[in-house]
Amino acid sequence: QVQLVESGGGLVQAGGSLKLSCSASGSIFSINNMGWHRQAPGKQRELVASITSGGRTIYADSVKGRFTISRDNDKNTVYLQMSSLKPEDTAVIYCYADLHTIRYWGQGTQVTVSS
């Protein structure tokens, strides 16, 4: 059993910053990709950013230059530093971790950006 626990969401004004963390625990041998998706009200869930175990990253066009994904393999933790936040970044953000062929998800954390 693998669990992902997220932290760091909240309310912030436009232009502000937040840093999310997501730690994996349980029966873990190795984690391949880790990343973040988000789901805004009335919209489909979309990829925000992902990172391989070797550190290669992918970002959604909408967050490039504003968000930075990183990970600590020793701690089985992935981070998302969000800067220059916009009201359209308001969403529930979910972390994930790929172990073998299974994708595990965190419980989601709300990020609200006020104008």
Give the overall pLDDT as a whole number. 96
Characterize the main sheet.
7 strands, mixed
Low-confidence stretches: none
Structural class: mainly beta
Q: Total number of β-strand segments?
A: 11
How many distinct helices?
Answer: 0
| Range of helix content | under 10%
Rg (C-alpha, Å): 13 Å
Q: State the order of secondary-structure elements, H for helix, E for strand.
A: EEEEEEEEEEE
Rough outline? globular
Tell me the strand percentage band: over 45%
| Oligomer kind | single chain
Distance between the termini: 40 Å
Folded structure, characterized:
The mean pLDDT is 96. With 115 residues, the chain is mainly β. It is 0% helix and 57% strand. It has strands at residues 2-7, 10-13, 18-26, 34-39, 46-51, 57-59, 67-72, 77-82, 91-99, 102-105, 109-114. The N and C termini lie far apart (40 Å). Strands 2, 4, 5, 6, 9, 10 and 11 form a 7-stranded mixed beta sheet that branches. The chain has a 4-stranded antiparallel beta sheet with strand order 1-3-8-7, with no helix packed on it. The radius of gyration is 13 Å and the shape is globular.
Features:
115 residues, mainly beta, seven-stranded mixed β-sheet, four-stranded antiparallel β-sheet, 0% helix
Brief rundown of the structure:
With 115 residues, the chain is mainly beta.
Structural topology:
Blueprint: E1 2-7, E2 10-13, E3 18-26, E4 34-39, E5 46-51, E6 57-59, E7 67-72, E8 77-82, E9 91-99, E10 102-105, E11 109-114
